[in-house]
Amino acid sequence: MTSIRALPPPEPDKPLKRLAAEQVAAFQDDGFLLLPGLFASDEVALVQDLLRHDSSVGEHSVGIIDSSGAPAEIFGWSGASEDVLGAFVRIARLVEAAEDLLGGQPVYHWHSKLSMKRPGSAGRWDWHQDFGSWYREGCLRPEMLTAMVAVDRTTPENGCVQLLRGSHRLGRIDHVPIGPSHGADPAVVARALEALETVACVMEPGDVVFFHGNTLHASGGNTSETSRTLLHVSYNTVRNQPTDPLVIHAFEPLEVLPDDALLTGAFAPRLDQAALTRRIELRRKQKIGEVYGYQVAGPKG
Ligand SMILES: O=C(O)CCC(=O)C(=O)O
User: Fold this and answer.
1) DSSP annotation of 83
2) Are 196 and 168 a contacting pair, CB within 8 Å?
3) How far apart, in whole angstroms, are the C-alpha atoms of residue 70 and residue 74?
4) How many angstroms is it from 81 CA to the middle of ligand 1?
5) CA distances from 265 to 44, 215, 233, 269 (A)
6) Cα–Cα distance list, 226 to 16, 25, 118, 163, 221 (Å)
7) 6 CA → ligand 1 middle, Å
8) Residue of 217, 227, 228 with the most ligand 1 atoms within 8 Å of its CB, for mutation
9) How far apart are CA 119 and CA 13, in angstroms?
10) Suppose 154 and one of 57, 105, 188, 203 were both cysteines; which one would form an S-S bond, judging by CB atoms 3.0 to 4.6 Å apart?
């Protein structure tokens, strides 16, 4: 125990690596930050091409059941991979911005997913905080965030993500079963929806929205004729690793890639099959859906 009289003065703020102080302040106030056009169209095209030409994504995607029983399709992974998706996870502009937004703390890759809504698909994401799940796994501090990269244009019609502005300041809300799914306590969500502003993440390909692990978010079905794909890359601070993490969330040092790595092509254009298989097996063995309280559906689940 330390005496309150013996405490050293607070550490000075760490210098920002990537963002301006105003951007960090906006994130602290709102619980999210939009960086328009953070990725160029040639860079986003790498993911679009992968989706078009590599059948592994479709083969390994699963459905996360929403509260009405409809599946929302994702392709999830964690750890390092030597492919284009791994390059997005390690690219300096995402990692450094994440560190700036998390108080200058070094981060590691928690997990990522391609979240896909095909035209006309009904699957929704009920209101939840990501930290509501991650806390269940033993992360103490809400020092976690997601960088959401638009692969397609996202609109209310095709099921863009909605964020509740300032909801990260409500603290962690209990997550409870909702029908066949799991989400933030609906009674609390109803009050939060009345009190706070709902913001639709209308995004162009290449835009990135960073959102805090406690920011309430949801998304609707895709009622349009265009597909909606988002790449969600989630980071945790190194000091916040759970003491007994699922293997897929165990700390691995993040080898940061320079910003030009996507265009110079220092990675495999197709999916890193070895890394993929290893992670998918772990995910299945550890029954991550059960740990977090959701159901995974689909022939490939
Ligand atoms: O991609 C979406 O629509 C939402 C995904 C989401 O909320 C999540 O992965 O936690």
Assistant:
1) B
2) no
3) 13
4) 22
5) 13, 34, 20, 8
6) 38, 35, 7, 22, 12
7) 45
8) 217
9) 46
10) 203
Pocket of ligand 1 (CB under 6 A): 113, 115, 125, 130, 161, 217, 219, 230, 232
Q: What is the pLDDT of residue 196?
A: 98
Please tell me the predicted confidence (pLDDT) of residue 289. 73
> Which atom of ligand 1 is closest in space to residue 219's alpha carbon?
3
Does the global pTM surpass 0.90?
Answer: yes
What the block records as the tokens of 265 is: 């092509």
Q: State in Å: Cα 219 to ligand 1 middle.
A: 7
Instruction: Take residue 194 and report the two structure tokens written for it.
Output: 């009345």
Q: How remote is the CA of residue 154 from the centroid of ligand 1, in Å?
A: 13
pLDDT averaged over 10-residue windows placed end to end, the chain, 301 residues:
91 91 98 98 95 86 93 89 91 98 96 95 97 92 98 98 98 95 96 98 98 98 97 97 82 94 79 73 69 69 38
- The residue among 123, 164, 157 whose CA lies nearest residue 30 is 164
Q: Kindly report the three-state secondary structure assignment for every residue of 209-240.
A: EEEECCCCEEECCCCCCCCEEEEEEEEEEHHH
In words, the CATH class of domain 26-297 is mainly beta
Residues in the chain: 301
Q: How large is the greatest C-alpha to C-alpha distance in the chain, in angstroms? A: 64
CA nearest 260: which of 91, 147, 99?
91
Atom in ligand 1 nearest the alpha carbon of residue 160: 3
Here the tokens at position 12 are: 């000075």
Distance 115 CA to ligand 1 centre (A): 7
pLDDT value of residue 269: 65
**Tokens coding 143:** 């020092």
CA of 161 to the centre of ligand 1 (A): 7
Among 262, 278, 264, 275, CA closest to 84? 262
Count how many Cα atoms sit within 13 Å of the Cα of residue 124 in the half-sphere of its side chain: 20
